[in-house]
Amino acid sequence: MLEFYGNVIVGGLLLGAVYALLATGLNVIFGVMRMVNFAHGEMVVVGMYVGYGLWAWTGAPALVAAPVAALLLFAMGYLFQRFVANRFVEAPQHMQFILYIAIALIITGLHAVFFGPDPRGIQSAASFEVYQLGMIRFDAVRTQAAVASLVLIAALWAWFRYSLTGKAIEAAAENRVGGQAIGIRIPHLFALTSGLGFACAGAAGALVAPMFDVQPYLGGEFTLVAFIIVIVGGLASLPGALVGGLLIGLAEALAATVVAPSMKALFSYGLLVLVILLRPQGLFGKVEV
């Protein structure tokens, strides 16, 4: 029994690490621009289709597809923010919501038109590999995806903390007018931030593609997961996104095992409600004054 639950917990934490990368992209965009990307899950699905396409055409594993998806989504995010979304940064929130919801619907429709509604699964040799450490078994696909996700999150955190561009983005987020006064190119930095957020979603999608059958209508589910993680961990907090992702992955795994697979979402929402009641700003969020 101990071995069984140990493996369940490890599997949930491994998936949670990928969830954390997914939520990090949403958190980065909100933390810098205070814009809520309701199309975030659809960007994850784009990454999933990139991962599936590369596997179908070349047999490339998720670890190879992830940087390709990240680069593609970075370009999409940069161009979208630079030429469209920058016009809405100062707009009322309801206009921002409508913009991103429209983008989500367009992307879902395009997926359905070009790829059809049928789910597409990735079955590779790694799908049947397991790493053994004592009585704990690590699914190879989840382990590789989790390690890649943690590396990307750590690299993004280090880039924001130590690079000049990362510090400029943080300065622009703290004081937009002051940043403009000292010559910071705010539209470019906002576009760069959006590109990074989209890239996180794309990489997460490629990494998670072997775990879920790819189909056009998964976007809403991933968007909700990202929102739950961000709220649990704390808005605009990278450590919060990591801890929130691990908690949600663990909650889903235990709920699916102990109760029923259909109940995993209920446990995630229960955790969300508990955090809102006890710590509304999230586990690592700051109280705004």
Concise summary:
This protein has helices spanning 2-33, 40-58, 62-83, 93-115, 140-162, 164-174, 176-181, 186-208, 219-233, 238-258, 264-278; strands at residues 130-133, 136-139. By secondary structure, the protein is an all-alpha fold. The mean pLDDT is 90.
Question: Topology, pairings included?
Answer:
Blueprint: H1 2-33, H2 40-58, H3 62-83, H4 93-115, E1 130-133, E2 136-139, H5 140-162, H6 164-174, H7 176-181, H8 186-208, H9 219-233, H10 238-258, H11 264-278
Antiparallel strand pairs: 1-2
Helix pairs in contact: 1-5, 1-8, 1-9, 1-10, 2-3, 2-4, 2-8, 2-9, 3-8, 5-6, 5-8, 6-8, 9-10, 9-11, 10-11
Structural commentary:
With 289 residues, the protein is an all-alpha fold. The chain has one domain: ABC transporter involved in vitamin B12 uptake, BtuC. It contains eleven helices and two strands. It has helices spanning 2-33, 40-58, 62-83, 93-115, 140-162, 164-174, 176-181, 186-208, 219-233, 238-258, 264-278; strands spanning 130-133, 136-139. Strands 1-2 form a two-stranded antiparallel ribbon.
Strand order of the largest sheet: 1-2
Largest sheet: 2 strands, antiparallel
Helix fraction, binned, reads: over 70%
User: How many DSSP E strands?
Assistant: 2
Query: Judging by the overall fold, what is the CATH architecture?
Result: Orthogonal Bundle
Keywords:
289 residues, mainly alpha, ABC transporter involved in vitamin B12 uptake, BtuC, two-stranded antiparallel ribbon, 11 helices, 3% strand, globular
